């Protein structure tokens, strides 16, 4: 996993002159409940200051920075320098867990321990030297277990919300999506292929809430542990709050742990979560997209979901698909085989599960959707 920079804490939130204002903000956000998952807009550093202000009325409680490490020598100096440069005035510690690194990561962490502790930041170091790493989920759990803070701030390889990318031109569509989500969309767009609406390494929550949700999945390589934890957070009534300031950099590289997770694995979890959390609230629904993605969703639904929730139609703008008239689900043991009508989107009835990728049609799809004056979360959900 690569290492991000931890943006500096904003003095204006912790200085004596603004302390009262900071407490007022923190009370407002704290009353949302302990299930607040916060993320920050990134810039060149990483700042926990705003997160502390929005999650914690008790400014003297210790904040633990949770840092899993595996073969991160290329980025560790920059990462740990950003921790050192924090100007947060509260109590803060760094909890590092090394997951069997075979490079110089352990030595680099050792060099930084004295420097950080000299600046008043206690450092807790754990790890193992087994032949193989045990995975990101295991490392995060161990780093949390050895820490002592009331609040947990996760620091890891892919950082940001309202993100500035490193390199700047990487995954442009994803960056636009994560930067443009409105507050209510942090909950309504949790079913998309992009994953959590606040990127994992920017999460901030109380230790009590972390314990309530449960540990990260420790299945190792290929397990989307952040997505699974996020889903469990939502199942247990957790809120999602974002601090809208550019505070973190999201570093993209080919060896990031996220690349070990298969798309099919994520798809399966997304479909099950959709069936569990959304479809039971609708008597019937329409799948927007009679093409590959829409048909794949239909086939992926359990027979119970197709019957109970009632896929009444597909809709599209493609005249060829519409003229065909219906989609027949051939790969099924059901008799008779389901035949689902294909309609023009203006003739279809909401609610919709939308399987059209955003930001790919020059705004045509988005214009069509807006023209229907629907309410996201009530009349439609994105599953693209």
Description:
- The protein has 384 residues and is of the alpha/beta class.
- The protein has two domains: 11-261, Spore Coat Polysaccharide Biosynthesis Protein SpsA, Chain A (Alpha-Beta Complex); 278-382, 3-Layer(aba) Sandwich (Rossmann fold).
- 34% of the residues lie in helices and 19% in strands.
- The chain has 14 helices and 15 strands.
- The protein has helices at 19-30, 49-55, 73-84, 105-118, 136-145, 172-180, 185-188, 207-213, 225-235, 263-277, 292-300, 303-310, 319-324, 364-371; strands at 36-41, 63-69, 92-99, 123-128, 151-154, 164-166, 204-206, 239-246, 249-251, 285-288, 311-316, 326-328, 339-344, 352-354, 380-382.
- Helix 1 (19-30) crosses helix 2.
- Mean pLDDT is 81; it is low at 1-36, 38-47, 50-59 and 157-163.
- GO terms for molecular function: hexosyltransferase activity.
- This is UDP-GlcNAc:betaGal beta-1,3-N-acetylglucosaminyltransferase-like protein 1.
- InterPro entries: Glyco_trans_2-like, Nucleotide-diphossugar_trans.
- Keywords: Glycosyltransferase, Transferase.
Topology:
Blueprint: H1 19-30, E1 36-41, H2 49-55, E2 63-69, H3 73-84, E3 92-99, H4 105-118, E4 123-128, H5 136-145, E5 151-154, E6 164-166, H6 172-180, H7 185-188, E7 204-206, H8 207-213, H9 225-235, E8 239-246, E9 249-251, H10 263-277, E10 285-288, H11 292-300, H12 303-310, E11 311-316, H13 319-324, E12 326-328, E13 339-344, E14 352-354, H14 364-371, E15 380-382
Parallel strand pairs: 1-8, 2-3, 2-5, 3-4, 6-9, 10-11, 10-14, 11-13, 14-15
Antiparallel strand pairs: 5-7, 12-13
Organism: Fukomys damarensis
Pfam families: Glycos_transf_2
GO molecular function, one term: hexosyltransferase activity
